[in-house]
Amino acid sequence: MLSIELIRNNPEKIEDQIASKGEHLDINAILKLDESYRSDLGEANALRAKRNKASDKIAKAKRSGENADDAIADMRAVSKQIKALDDKTQNSKSKLNTLLLDLPNIPHQSVPLGKDEKDNQLIREWGELVDKEFKLKPHLELGEALSLFDFERGAKISGSGFPLYTGWGAKLERALINYMLDVQTEGHGYTEIFPPFVVRPDSAVTTGQLPKFGDDMYLSERDGLWLIPTAEVPVTNIHQDEILSEDQLPINYTAYSACFRREAGSYGKDTRGFLRLHQFNKVELVKFVKPEDSYDELEKLVGHAEAILQSLGLKYRVVELCTGDLSFSAAKCYDIELWAPGEQKWLEVSSCSNFEDFQARRGNIRFRRKRDKKVEFVHTLNGSGVATPRLLVALLETHQNENGSISIPKPLQSYLGAEVLD
Prior knowledge:
single chain; alpha+beta; 8-stranded mixed β-sheet; 41% helix; 20% strand
């Protein structure tokens, strides 16, 4: 959430920055409502001061035996005015909060201007193109031949977009999750979390999924709980409504979760195999940091996700998103895209974002400075470390052999208990 003070003090700048993300901001409506709210609040406070003085006079009059009926009647009238103003300010505050919750975060000044993904900037590439003396097969053909998954039966159980992993495919999925968690905890010092997979509405508000993107989420209406689209949601809310000490920061969490997404706006996009799913697995990285450290921590976060891909010998690239392609909550974001040689395309496997204090304001997540005891909002960051479906696609297609078998990268062999799938 953007602070109303920031909007109030820099209206034109905020309007331009939000426009750069392709969003429209009715700045005048927000400023007008804010002005009305503050005016009514000031009037109500002035009347309270008047009522307090009148109350003192009435008390003195009663002690001295004077008639205070008129003064009491006046005070009751003032109390009615205060009640009316309190109702009005509460209504204005609620409307203002609704407007602010619908506003996206503003881009960091370093983010390149642009309208869509065509304006994103390539930062770096790693790895070599697969060069084999046979025609590469796509992941669907490879996996079906090895009985790693069964999309047809998965659809029979739950509908399209809900994969069914079988045999070595199920073991490979589990091995990838365990391997990625161990790399982040043992190699990079993250604390492992195993979070709930459903959350209350206020948790989804904290991370920016609600109220604007409810159509993309699954809702258990009977219980009023939302299925998580990413472990970012429950993990970020671990410290909701808390004041941390400066010494606790940075806090680094990693978590596996199943992720559930309706993908309401993705009709017509490629839905073959693992390329777009309603349920998938992911290892998430979440950071709570001091504001002055957050952009250094973002670079570290990207490196921690890259380490997984490098260790598995997969070609990838890091792309910085332009303003028009940034997510609702992000101030800056890098996407990591894997090269899938069988599909002959780049596949996004991780987004690493700095939200600055946008999520912290929504979730009231703060810390106290040691030097002056001042309380400030933390900065939150998160990144996929990484999502398994497209990782599985790239792994199968990159490490395939001419006979259709799959060579397992060395770091993963002990987790899977096999060197080759055939």
